[in-house]
Amino acid sequence: MFENIKWSRGDKVLEFGGGTGYNAYKWILPQVQKWEGDLVSLDISNTMVEYARKTWPHPRIQHICADILAEDDKLEKQLDGRLFDKIFSTFVLHQVHDIRNTLCRLQGLLNPGGVFGFICFTNKNFYFRATRIIAQMEKWKECFNGYESIIASWTTFEGKDHGENMLRNLMHECGFQVKTLEILDRSCYFDDIEVFLDLLLAINQFLHRLPEKKKQELKNDYHKLLTEIEETNTDSKDFMFKYELLYAVIEKPEVF
Ligand SMILES: C[S@@+](CC[C@H](N)C(=O)[O-])C[C@H]1O[C@@H](n2cnc3c(N)ncnc32)[C@H](O)[C@@H]1O
């Protein structure tokens, strides 16, 4: 995505939801350096921003802690009134529930002719489906309170064409022209199913609420669901994790 987009000298770039800062440093920075631009990497989590500042410092990167949906004047102040030529976000938008306001906000942060490129998960993968089931089980309800924040309902693309058209229309309504919009089928092979199950626990943001001894039970429940939802053989040692990605590049027209 970062290489395929047309760059210009001095481009001002915003990364929305920068997380650990790895993406900004490893993938966006090389282009920013090449085009002598600069990069603001923004995240709502202060812990993430502190980590990114410490781990991936660079004179061309500024790490800012801010909510992309903060009130207009607050965000404007945090960004020193800057507008951008490019905005990128990777694996953020599936957590964003108010997609309309987010797209409108990002459109407002772009210069005319600027582009927003993003990639995120859709709703359709084992982790999200299983987590929804587990979160509603009596024994896990308390631990998973607020699980809805993990995955936004707008990323459901059951009828792909219908889902894509709805999103295209929304993007137009928010003042974007759609350059690329694709739903990509992807998979990741795990030769040890245990590693996959450990990963599910590792990325679970509610896990700290569970006592140590309950974690194995949770892992077992995910394993049980693997055999039910994905029809994986109970004795299977390996696992193919299949998922969809939504990939888009959208542009704010020169004249809007
Ligand atoms: C799953 S992480 C992805 C991090 C990184 N982009 C990557 O690909 O590794 C999502 C990040 O988006 C941030 N985020 C979520 N909502 C946000 C918001 N409203 N404003 C700014 N950042 C937000 C979260 O704090 C988190 O660090």
Set out the fold topology:
Layout: E1 12-16, H1 22-34, E2 38-43, H2 46-55, E3 61-65, H3 72-78, E4 84-90, H4 99-108, E5 110-125, H5 126-135, H6 160-173, E6 177-190, H7 193-202, H8 212-229, E7 239-251
Parallel strand pairs: 1-2, 1-4, 2-3, 4-5
Antiparallel strand pairs: 5-7, 6-7
Helix pairs in contact: 5-8, 7-8
Give the number of helices: 8
- The CA-CA distance between the termini, in Å, is 25 Å
N to C succession of SSEs = EHEHEHEHEHHEHHE
The strands making up the biggest β-sheet line up spatially as 3-2-1-4-5-7-6
Secondary-structure content class:
alpha/beta
* Overall body shape: globular
Helical coverage, percent range: 25-40%
The value of Rg in angstroms is 20 Å
**Oligomer category:** single chain
Mean pLDDT: 93
- Main beta-sheet annotation: 7 strands, mixed
Strand content: 25-35%
Q: Which ligands appear in the coordinates?
A: S-adenosylmethionine
Number of strands: 7
Low-pLDDT ranges: none
